[in-house]
Amino acid sequence: MKYSILIMALVFTGIFAQAQSSDKAKALLDEVYNKVKGYDNIAVNFKFALHNSEADVDQETRGDVTLEGEKYLFNYLGSQQLYDGAKVYTIVPENEEVTIEDKSEDENTITPSKMLTFYKTGHNYEWDILQNVQGRKIQFVKLIPIDTNSEITSILLGIDAETKHIYKLIETGKNGTITTITVNSFKTDQQLSKTLFTFDENKYKEEGYYIIRN
Fold first, then answer.
1. The pTM is what?
2. How far apart are CA 97 and CA 38, in angstroms?
3. Which of the residues in the chain have pLDDT under 70?
4. Is the Cα torsion angle 179, 65, 184, 79 positive or negative in sign?
5. How many other C-beta atoms lie within 10 A of the C-beta of residue 92?
6. Domain-by-domain residue ranges, the chain?
7. Does domain 2-71+110-191 fall into CATH 2.50.20.10?
8. How far is CA 186 from CA 27, 79, 98, 165, 166, in A?
9. Of 9, 111, 120, 124, which one is least surrounded by beta carbons within 10 A?
10. Which residues pair with 36 in a beta bridge?
């Protein structure tokens, strides 16, 4: 009888500790979300790394994105993507090509405008390690997709404990691919051009770009 009580006590202690871990993680992510939503605009410069030892893939590149509400301007891999609130414009200078299409309605698609808020839904949370990165305390939270069919096993989200800004994202896929995004600079409430999120179709036509409408 004593052993049964001991086992039950250990089980309930484990469940309670797990619940506390989840609550702490969710509370921190709520702070991050509220901080992000309070800015008029955000400009992020980042490093992107992709690694899969089995497939012998090791890539690293840099990019930047400017966000204002749902609108964004995203520079990555020599291409530029612009969302003006109605249409998505993908500009590929190498091919002298612009693709114009409607924004995806798939809730599971992480667009640049969701990069800093995607964690709000669809995940279970766990409190993870605290790291010291060049004098900055980075608290990691582990996100596990609720959807068991997700191609993602887990995401580690590193958050600056002082600023409550996202510093690092480490995504592990079921295929063994590890994707890491590290924020190099995070600027808020910048003086943006009034035409930053405006697509000038005539400009690209004059430059000889081929316009594709999907």
1. 0.83
2. 36
3. 1-20, 105-110
4. positive
5. 16
6. 2-71+110-191
7. yes
8. 22, 21, 28, 8, 9
9. 9
10. none
